[in-house]
Amino acid sequence: MRDENLTRLLGDPRGIAMERALAELRSGRPVVLNFGGSDHLVMSPETVDEAALAAILRIGGGAELVLSQPRLHWLGLPSLTPGVIPLEDLDVSAIVALISHTDAYVNGHAPRPAGGAAKTALELVRLAYLLPAAIIVPLSEANEAAATHLARIDEASLNYYQDDVRASPRIVSRAPVPLDEIGDTEFVVFRG
Questions:
Q1: CATH number of the domain that residue 130 is part of
Q2: For residue 91, which of 42, 52, 117 has the smallest C-alpha distance?
Q3: pLDDT digits (tens, 9 = 90+) for 115-148
């Protein structure tokens, strides 16, 4: 009974985990995404600096920049799906150009079609209201121990968040706002 009351008060743990992961991404910190039984480090490329990029590259091989299908099209690479570019050949200025500049070029990098984990990472960053691009790195068992303090989510939590939490917003705060020309109004904040 107590557990049900706490869940009603705080919300479903899967929704809370997602909200924490989204807040971490917005704050420039990576999160761990479990996809298909494998852990991946995910970070928004718009928050990456030189030190973070160097740390990401030291984690191990397989670090990739995930670009959305519309962004690839803008870069002159028509594609039906998101694509990935190996991160090891890019510096921060190249990453920023690829994700945000209107005059950017891929410069010889041929994006491969994104797999399921990369597409999920892209969706996670999109839900955080950041530019639709992601950095994803597969985590080895050796690195997983160091990542235990990071926010962790899985594909099921992301699906739950999209289907249930965002689809059923609830009021979390109200405040009266007196406006001269309109009269008494109310400012309402929703979660979901």
A1: 3.90.870.10
A2: 52
A3: 999 999 999 999 999 999 999 999 988 887 778 8
Range of lowest pLDDT (4-8, 57-61, 64-68, 152-156): 4-8
Are 132 and 41 within 8 A, CB to CB?
A: no
Q: In this predicted model, what pLDDT tens digit does every residue of 52-78 receive, in sequence order?
A: 999 999 987 899 999 999 999 888 888
Number of structural domains (the chain) is 1
Helix, strand or coil, per DSSP, at residue 3: helix
Paired sense of beta strands 152-154 and 31-35, if any? parallel
Q: What is the 3-state secondary structure (H, E, C) of 104-153?
A: CCCCCCCCEECCHHHHHHHHHHHHCCCCCEEEEEECCHHHHHHHCCCCEE
- CB-based contacts of 127: which residues, under 8 Å, 6+ apart? 18, 22, 158, 161, 162
Place of tokens 């807040």: 23
Residues in the chain: 192
User: Against a cut of 0.85, is the pTM above it?
Assistant: no
For residue 93, the enclosing domain spans 2-191
Q: What are phi and psi of 17, to 5 degrees?
A: -60, -40
CA distance 25 to 21: 6
**What is d(CA 91, CA 48) in angstroms, rounded to the nearest whole number?**
10
